[in-house]
Every structure is written in structure tokens, then in C-alpha cells.
Design goal:
By secondary structure, the protein is of the alpha/beta class. 46% of the residues lie in helices and 18% in strands. The protein contains 27 helices and 24 strands. The protein has a six-stranded parallel beta sheet, with helices on both faces. A six-stranded mixed beta sheet has the order 11-15-16-14-13-12. Helix 1 crosses helix 13. The longest helix has 45 residues. The two termini are 64 Å apart. One of its GO terms (biological process) is chemotaxis.
């Protein structure tokens, strides 16, 4: 019978991805410490192990790829070749290629490595690689931009990968709104690959020991339960005697009855004491079992953090900046299910730090900073919560620019903006469509990332995210998450005799104060808490219960119970009727017919109070703020019906591209006019006030940059959004796009219709 290796594929993929992560860590460290031979040895061993395992599995192409990587590393070990930037780049590209091959394998297909990268690695192993890889080689190497399938293949979840047809469309690692919002990986995991997780044997031993104690205690309880049942049968035997009342008054029978009663009392007392003791043992045992069971799903955050080194490296190559990544707290553990949902938000924040935060080298030097930027990611446990920080030492968020953009997009009103402190204004970056980038690119600036990052962290991970910024010194994102989403700590409160559950993670404190301490400030109910004014609303009013009349009904009470949510300037108080209890509960999803409830996130089953809805506190706070400020910017800003649908001018000399863009835009409700080149585009722009213009760059007679400059000179198009869609992907061309007056820059090689549509919606304020 032939030996079936296919059943070992899942384990091979899991092991290989572990070694790929080790290679990534080693190569990143080697860049900073090229003379450290121990790092070369570690990366060599990882490549060697993959080669040996793949050869055992008869995976010839993977084995060949690992072999040439091993040859280069062996040359470095033996000092036969010198470590250089070029050798480092080729090693990284080889590792990236191997990662892609692992991704293909997890989809059931073993692919061949590109001949060009194999040739480069062989040259490197022989010491024949030139100092600089020529342009042709660079173009044939794996794309230096971030490739999301690499990230997925290096993620701790080996069953979750993406299969991408690179001949049709590249994936540059840009996290789109759809991918972030769904937070799930397109396609299913390889059919044969079951989701697995490595568990420390000590954790299993602890759980098994606990199970032994539970079984032992259960057997003792069973024994006494039988004794209790026997006692019941004894009492039942005396039932006929009790029914003959005259016998009870007989002196002899009376004495027997008294003796029986005392015996019964003593035995019941003894059983009760033992049963209570067992219950007392069961409670901590079950708690420990629950805790130990959850620990089995815990993985170190390093499984996520380690993949970000490659992200930073590739982004730096694309942005022409030099940034180092410093990571601490990677041994902090978190539920594996949560780490899967954490990867994309972290990826987007790191990309934001590089693209928007860290300044170009010349700007940093002028400001007296080191030429190289730094991104720091840290993690730790505080108060039972996992706290993650993502910081950069860049220029900080331009708060005034955020305020200006938020006002222009109708996110806030002038009156509410005047009341906001700088820290509160900075939080506006989490609103949809808000970006302060000078130009929108396929990497960032479309304003469709930070809002979805917040949605993922708040809605899926049940956490919070805030931002702090210091002009000229940098920005820090603070993320607070529960260690697991399996069980949450909730407060059970009542409103109009109805019970609700509130996640403790969103409660800063609960205070009871005299009702007369609530007073009016700028026509709003507030209380003074430790010297700070905190807005107050009725939670019942937020939920649509009978509302308090802005303080009148409140003051009829002698005291009120107020739940405080939020931090610093963003705090809000909600009045509740009573606090019943605190509980650890498993949150169940809502049934389909209830999933449209905006203010509810799930339900719990409480022993004391039955089925209770769990409130979505972040949405509750947003709703409460609307009650406090009923006039919103969105109500002030209305679209002119005569300007809809928006009219877009598409300028491109390539008929196919022109028609594709026209078809995409018309299918989404836009009115489209086309121009065949720059001269035609400029002529048509002078004849009509288009709402937006989409243009190519390389066109006969007049290129897109020059056309944009000329269109900007037309009064009616001085502020019309212009989107450049081009094959040019260099930083110098993007800068030229900015100087010419374009608002967005999308690279054709990475063209994604969703990027184009989201960019247009953002620029038009739709």
C-alpha cells in the first residue's frame, strides 16, 4: 500500500510557517546586526528544516526553493560571501516567494518558484551577485509592496490564507473597507486543513489535574446524593405511620417517633454540611477549569507582531523612508480568535504611521530629529485587559487640519467644534471618510481605514481605541481589549423594571450622587466629578424609554445612580435605576430578526434574571451625544438634487481603460463623459463644470500632469476633485501629482474598482 503523505500536509504547513516566522525575525535582526553569526545560524537552521521536511513530503518545488535559500545562508555562515544590502534584499524576496508557495500549497496546489528569483539566489550563493540588482531584476522579483497573502501565510492561523491570481491583479497589502469590515479572509481554508493551535503541555497537565479533582468531587457528591435518596425512602416508609394520627400519641410510638426525628435531623444536617462543602469545592474548581480551558486558546501576541517587521520593510521600500520597528510585550497572551481579528487593524495603523506619521528624512533632519523614524509597538496586561500601543516619532496629527476636514465633510458643526479640546478633535480621525493626506493613493489617504479599524476593535473585539498626539513629536494609538471574547464581565442594571447587561470594559465607574448635584451648563445636564464637568443623560431616554425632561424628573429623586463611560474629555454619565449584580457571562449572538438592533450587541442567560440583552455601549454613547446635540452637521448639509447624479469626466487615450472606467462608474449611478487625451480633456473641462475628473498620465499631445495644471487654472475647476489613474508608481511621480493639483493617485498595476469608487465617494463627500 502506498504511503499517504497528504494527511500530514496540515502539520507540515503549520511547522513551515513557524520556521518562516523565525526566518523573518532573523533576517530583520540581521539587517541591524549583520556581523551576528548566531542570527545567520538561526535563519539557516529554519531554511534547512523546511528543506528537509518538504523533501520528506515529496514537495519538490518547495524543497528546491528552501535549498537555494539554505545555500546563500550557508555561504554567509562560512564567510564565503559577504553580507550586503543586495544579498539581504534577495534573501527577503526568496523568503517572500517561499511564503507564497506555502499559501498555494494550503489551497491544494504546489507552484514552481519564479526562475528569476531562483537565478538571483544561486548567483548570491556563488558570490556573483552585483552590489545592486538592476532594474530588470527588481521588476522580476516579487513585488516589493506588501502582499496580503504573505501576511496571511505568516499568521498564526495556518488554515486561513488567501489565494490571489497575480496575473490578473496584485494585492499590495492595502486593507480595503470591505476586507476590514468583514474581517474575514476571502475564500475558505484548504479543505484538508483543520484549524489547529499549539498548546503548552503544562497547560494540558493543569487542566487534566483539575478534571481529576472535579471527577473525584463529583463521585463524592454522587455517593451523598444516593444517601440522601435512601433517607427519602426511609421517610417514605414512615408515611403510613404518620397517617395514623392516633398512633403518634401512643407513648411508645411517640418515643420512637422522637428518636426517628432526631436521627433524621442529624443525618440531614451531616449531608447538608457535606453537600455545601462539595458545592464550595465545585465553585473554584469550575472557575479554574474555565480559566484553564480558555488558556488553551491563548497565543502570544508575537505571532501577530512578528509579521509586522516585513510590513515595515516593504512599506519603507515603497515610500522611500527609513523606519525601524521596535516591539515589546510580544509574550503577552490573547485569545487566538482575537489575534485573527487584530492583524488587519494593526497593519493599517502601521501603514498610517509610515505614510502619514513619519516625516521624510530631510524634514526630520531640519527638525533636529534622527533621519530614521521609529515605530514602537508594545503590549501588556493592565487591570485584566490587554493594552496595546502603536506609536511613531513623526510630526503628529495636524489637529487644525482634522477640524477643517471634519467641518467640510459635515462630521461636526462649528458650534460643537468650538467646544472640543484638541484631544477630542484628534479622535475625529476615526470617522468615515476623514483623511488629512495631501493626496489619496492606493496605499492610504482615502479615509476608509481608521473608521473601520475602530469598528473592528469595538464591535468584533469588544475593545476601545483612542489616539494621543503631540505636534512635532509623534502619535500614539491606545487599544484596550479583553483577553478573550468567549466570556465577558457585565453589570446587570435596570431601567423601568427591565434588566440590561453592560460590558464592564466600557464602564469607568458607577457613582451614586444627590440629585441636586446635577445642574445645567450650556443648556446641558452635567455633574462635577472630581473637579471635572461630565455630561449626563438618562440611559432610558437613549433606549427610547420614557425620557427625563432634561433634569426636571431627575431632581424629584433624592439620589441618582450614574454609570460613567469613556476617558478624560470624552466621558459621559448615564443615569440608571439600579445595579443588580456583576456577572461573568457567555454572550450569545442575537437571533436573525433582532440583528438590526443598533444599540444591542448580544444576549446572556442569567440564572437570576433570565434572558438579558447586552447593550452596545459605544453606540449608546454616540446616541446619547446626539440627544445632547440634536442639531447635527449632516442635517445642515443637503445635496443639491440638480447636481445628482454627479457628472464625471474620464480622460484616457487607451480605449479599453477608458471604457472599463466608464462602465464601472455608470454601473454605480454616475453620469460619465469621456475624453480621448489630455487636449480633449482640457477642452471639455473648459466647457462644463464637472463634479470630478479621472485622468491617465501618459497621453499624446498633453500628459495628465500638464492637463491637471491647466484645468486648475479654470475658475470653475479650481477646486474640482481630480483623480490620476496611471501605471507610474514611483514616489517622484506621486509628488508630481500633488504639485500638479491632483487629489488622488491610483496605480493601474494595482487597480481595484473598489479603491476607485471609494476614492470618488470620499472626494465627493457621498
Amino acid at each position: 500500500m502506498a504511503f499517504d503523505r497528504s494527511k500530514f500536509i496540515p502539520r507540515f504547513i503549520e511547522d513551515a510557517n513557524d520556521h518562516l516566522r523565525a526566518m523573518n525575525r532573523g533576517l530583520v535582526s540581521l539587517v541591524e546586526n549583520p556581523s551576528d553569526s548566531s542570527l545567520v545560524d538561526a535563519v539557516f537552521r529554519a531554511a534547512h528544516t523546511i528543506k528537509g521536511s518538504s523533501r520528506m513530503m515529496k514537495l519538490i518545488h518547495i524543497s528546491e526553493m528552501a535549498h537555494v535559500l539554505e545555500d546563500v545562508l550557508d555561504g554567509l555562515r562560512k564567510k564565503n560571501i559577504a553580507y550586503s544590502h543586495t544579498v539581504s534584499t534577495v534573501l527577503f524576496d526568496g523568503m517572500d516567494t517561499l511564503s507564497k508557495m506555502m499559501t498555494s500549497l494550503s489551497q491544494g496546489e504546489e507552484t514552481e518558484p519564479p526562475k528569476k528569483i531562483m537565478a538571483l539566489l544561486k548567483q548570491a550563493a556563488q558570490g556573483e551577485l552585483e552590489d545592486q540588482v538592476d532594474q530588470e531584476d527588481q521588476e522580476n522579483c516579487p513585488d516589493p509592496k506588501i502582499d496580503s497573502e504573505i501576511e496571511d501565510s505568516l499568521s498564526p492561523d495556518t488554515g486561513a490564507v488567501v489565494r490571489t491570481d497575480t496575473d490578473v491583479q496584485k494585492d499590495d497589502g492595502n486593507v480595503s473597507r470591505d476586507s476590514l469590515k468583514k474581517n474575514e479572509i476571502s475564500g475558505t481554508a484548504m479543505g484538508a486543513v483543520e484549524e489547529t493551535i499549539r498548546v503548552d503541555v503544562n497547560k494540558l497537565d493543569a487542566l487534566i489535574n483539575l478534571m481529576g479533582e472535579v471527577v473525584s468531587t463529583h463521585k463524592k457528591a454522587e455517593t451523598h446524593a444516593r444517601q440522601l435518596h435512601d433517607l427519602f425512602l426511609t421517610v417514605d416508609d414512615f408515611k403510613p405511620f404518620f397517617e395514623k394520627k392516633e398512633q403518634i400519641h401512643d407513648e411508645e410510638n411517640s418515643h420512637a417517633f422522637e428518636k426517628f426525628f432526631h436521627s433524621l435531623h442529624d443525618r440531614l444536617k451531616q449531608l447538608d454540611r457535606k453537600m455545601q462543602g462539595y458545592l464550595g469545592q465545585f465553585h473554584p474548581l469550575m472557575g479554574q477549569m474555565q480559566e484553564r480551558s480558555l488558556e488553551l486558546r491563548m497565543v502570544p501576541l508575537s505571532t501577530v507582531f512578528d509579521t509586522l517587521h516585513m510590513v515595515v520593510r516593504d512599506l519603507c521600500r515603497h515610500s522611500e523612508k527609513t523606519v525601524s520597528l521596535e516591539v515589546s510585550g510580544g509574550d503577552t497572551e490573547m485569545d487566538k480568535k482575537m489575534t485573527e481579528h487584530l492583524k488587519d487593524p494593526l497593519l493599517h495603523m502601521v501603514r498610517n504611521c509610515i505614510d502619514h506619521g513619519v516625516e521624510p528624512e530631510a524634514v526630520r533632519l531640519k527638525a533636529g530629529k534622527p533621519p530614521h523614524g521609529t515605530i514602537s509597538i508594545g503590549a501588556g496586561i493592565e487591570g485584566g485587559r490587554v493594552c496595546i500601543s502603536v506609536a511613531d516619532d513623526g510630526g503628529g496629527i495636524l489637529v487644525d487640519k482634522v477640524a477643517e476636514k471634519a467641518l467640510s465633510r459635515g462630521i461636526v458643526t462649528e458650534s460643537s467644534l468650538k467646544e472640543m479640546k484638541p484631544l477630542q478633535v484628534a479622535q475625529l480621525i476615526f470617522n468615515p471618510g476623514l483623511s488629512t493626506a495631501e493626496i489619496i493613493t492606493d496605499i492610504s489617504g482615502r479615509g476608509v481605514g481608521m473608521d473601520v479599524v475602530r469598528q473592528n476593535i469595538e464591535n468584533i473585539l469588544n475593545g476601545t481605541i483612542t489616539v494621543e498626539t503631540t505636534p512635532g513629536r509623534g502619535t500614539v494609538f491606545h487599544i484596550r481589549l479583553p483577553e478573550t471574547i468567549a466570556i465577558i464581565h457585565v453589570f446587570i442594571v435596570t431601567l423601568n423594571s427591565v434588566c440590561y447587561a453592560i460590558p464592564a470594559s466600557h464602564v469607568t465607574e458607577i457613582v451614586s450622587i444627590p440629585a441636586n448635584e446635577i445642574f445645567k451648563a450650556q443648556e446641558k445636564d452635567v455633574l462635577r466629578l472630581r473637579g471635572e464637568l461630565v455630561p449626563v443623560v438618562s440611559m432610558g431616554e437613549v433606549l427610547g424609554h420614557a425620557p427625563f425632561s432634561h433634569g426636571v424628573d431627575i431632581r424629584k429623586e433624592t439620589s441618582v445612580l450614574i454609570l460613567i463611560s469613556g476617558q478624560k474629555e470624552d466621558r459621559l454619565g448615564m443615569i440608571i435605576d439600579s445595579l443588580l449584580s456583576e456577572e461573568e457571562q457567555v454572550v450569545k449572538p442575537l437571533p436573525l430578526h433582532m440583528r438590526g438592533l443598533h444599540l444591542v450587541t448580544g444576549a446572556i442567560l442569567s440564572d437570576s434574571h433570565g434572558i438579558i440583552l447586552v447593550l452596545h455601549m459605544l453606540h449608546m454613547v454616540e446616541q446619547a451625544k446626539k440627544i445632547h446635540s440634536p442639531v447635527t452637521a449632516s442635517s445642515e448639509k443637503e445635496h443639491d438634487p440638480e447636481r445628482f447624479p454627479p457628472h464625471i469626466l474620464v480622460v484616457d487615450d487607451a480605449v479599453t481603460t477608458r471604457e472599463i472606467e466608464k462602465s464601472i462608474l455608470e454601473s454605480h449611478g454616475y453620469k460619465v463623459t469621456v475624453a480621448i487625451d489630455g487636449v480633449d480633456g482640457f477642452k471639455k473641462a473648459g466647457e462644463f463644470a464637472y463634479d470630478l475628473i479621472v485622468s491617465d498620465v501618459d497621453m499624446p499631445r498633453l500628459d495628465g500632469f500638464a492637463m491637471t495644471e491647466k484645468i486648475r487654472a479654470i475658475d470653475m475647476h479650481a477646486h474640482t476633485p481630480i483623480v490620476i489613474v496611471t501605471a507610474r508608481d514611483s514616489q517622484s511621480d506621486m509628488k508630481k501629482g500633488i504639485s500638479s493639483g491632483a487629489n488622488a493617485y491610483i496605480v493601474k498595476g494595482d487597480f481595484d474598482k473598489n479603491n476607485l469608487l471609494e476614492t470618488i465617494e470620499n472626494l465627493l463627500g457621498l
